Amino acid sequence: MRAAACLILLAVAALAQGQPPTDAPLLVGHWIATMEFNGTTSVARLDLVEASNPLTGSLDGVPLSGTIERKMLRFRAGSRSVTATVADGVIMGTMITEGDKGVRPFSSAFRAARIPDRRPGPPQTIEFTPTSFQRSYSPQATPVLRVWPGDTVHTTTIDAGGVDAQGIKRAAGGDPLTGPIYVETAMPGDTLAVHIVRLRLNRDWAGTNDHLVDSALTAGLARRMDGINKPVRWRLDLEKNVGTPEGATGNLANYVLPLRPMIGSIGVAAPPGDAAPMANDSGFYGGNMDFNLIREAATVYLTIQAPGALLYLGDVHAAQGDGELNGSGLETSADVTFTVDVIPGRRPSAPRVENEGQIMATGFGGSVDDALRMATSNMAGWLAQDYGLGPSEVAQVLGTAAQYQISEIADRNSGVVLKIDKPLLRGLAPAR
């Protein structure tokens, strides 16, 4: 009895000194939190670093601090406070969010489940033939395929008008997409890396038109272009890897264009509480970026907005000049092979692209000026995060190495990409 009493006193003393209960260390790790407020769902990454008192970690990237007492958690992260219990591996409770000035605090149901570990064993190669296509980057669409980080997928796309490799109409126009593909362990607050392993055209024709978009025209050029806007069919010679306008006469009779296949649309789903962007739109989630360097051997980095990322892709062009001046590229279909990976805890402000020779930061906005500012900010964040550069150092690198490319002026958002040649960065010690 005396020994048992001593053990009880030691346990009480340990709790008094802030030691957690024996099961508290099981909370350490990565969770996906779901918040429900009057029919609107939002999600956030919950990282618990230390499960003692104080409880530490972060919620949606915001540092948290709190306490744990037996199975009861209480913590605060910025303007949000959570009270919850732990049972059967699930954290459930209530989150109180402080409103803006004049708005009362409001309550949301809070639930968190542990993010699964990566699957053991080697990566898989998966053959996927789509039977339906999506026309938005919806977080609500049912995944057509579930894969793990490291897996490789071989699939096909249809063209912007919904026509497949055999000339069969498979979907309504508007840049229909293959997907969504659910990536296990991918959670908001992480980055999805999509490496384009192989991109091959799978038919011998493409469609475009002969007009120029309004945003590229002066008043005088607009008058000269008035009355032209007809479809143009191109013949694709896949063996020689060149394209020619069908039936061209006069000055274009001998016009031969090298083919440079690219993926016009690639992106992840919008956040669960947001309206789904249409397939022909672009933004922080990626989307219809129409950047002609998103092609074979490039890697696209996308900030994950919804559990599983929900990857969509489509709108392959056999070739396209900068800006997509015709309002379309050489629209066609393709076979695509890509590998996915997840980079935990990284969240670029806009999509990033990398190939053997360059790192490239995208920016989108209502004007080219706005897009240029966003691309500059995106690259500045990349240099600070991956190379540890301070503001003065970032300014010096950008001022001497930046190359700007107008990627898109045909759609609602303009696109600008800031590129830096990798050899210029070799002397910088990576921060990662």
Structural class: mainly beta
What portion of residues belong to β-strands? 35-45%
Return the CATH class of the domain at 125-185 and 195-270 and 310-341. Mainly Beta
CATH topology call of the domain at 125-185 and 195-270 and 310-341? Jelly Rolls
The largest pleated sheet is described as:
9 strands, mixed
Strand order of the largest sheet: 9-11-23-13-21-24-25-27-26
The Cα radius of gyration reads 26 Å
Percent helix range: 10-25%
What sort of overall outline do the alpha carbons produce when their principal axes are compared?
A: globular
Q: How confident overall, as mean pLDDT?
A: 91
Beta-strand segment tally: 27
How many angstroms does the end-to-end distance come to? Answer: 56 Å
Q: With helices defined by DSSP (H or I, 4 residues minimum), what is the helix count? A: 4
CATH architecture assignment name of the domain at 125-185 and 195-270 and 310-341: Sandwich
Uncertain runs with pLDDT below 50, 5 residues or more? 1-22
**How would you classify the quaternary structure?**
single chain
